[in-house]
Amino acid sequence: MNDRSKVIACFREAGFRMNTDLFEHRLIAQKLVYLLRLKGVELAYPFRLYVRGPYSPLLAREYYQHADEFSRCETESMLSPAEADAVAGLTGLFDKSPSLLEIGATYGYLAYEMRQPPEQAYRMVRRMKSFYSNEQIVKGVNRAKQYLFVPTDEEKAALDAELQEWQRAGIRSMRH
Question: Do 3 and 44 touch, CB atoms closer than 8 A?
């Protein structure tokens, strides 16, 4: 499967019919593909950080040259269950919101590509995206973390233990 076909299959799975004439659609396309790459979907498009977040000139060339294919979302390519899950998780958290995707992808680039500590990446996003409200920035960063963070077995066990304690406390409080 070539990358263009896989991207179109991802867009189809996301319910996103791209119109290359719309800036918002181009922004959504770039950020969806970038975040899917970070989540492990194999797509060979190289990205660099630009003013509006991660951007791939090669991806842009593809969707301009094949605008009709992208707008129809027609491809013979099928996604693996893991790829479909990655798309569902992304669309479930970001709902194709251009601002949240831009913020989340920028945070992802800084934290995962540039390996900046989370606090530093967050501060950088706030500086770079000062035209967005603090609430939008917090939402976008938190959704990126939720989407991209994969806890280790030890972290899962610690979370489970903490949640069990909270559940026991909740049950005790209901008895009184």
Answer: yes
Q: Given 3-state DSSP classes, what are the helix, strand and coil percentages for the chain, each rounded to the nearest 5?
A: 70, 5, 25
Please check whether residue 138 is in contact with residue 146, taking contact to mean a CB–CB distance below 8 angstroms: no
Phi, psi of 18 (to 5 degrees): -80, 135
Residues of the chain with pLDDT under 50: 1
Nearest to 35 by CA among 108, 85, 88: 108
| Mode of pairing for the β-strands spanning 53-55 and 48-50 | antiparallel
Alpha helix segments (H runs only) across 39-152? 57-65, 67-72, 81-94, 98-108, 118-128, 134-148
- 10 Å CB burial of residue 109 (0-12, 13-18, 19+) is buried
Reported pTM? 0.84
Render pLDDT for 71-114 as a digit per residue (tens, 0 to 9).
Answer: 999 898 999 999 999 999 999 999 999 999 999 999 999 999 99
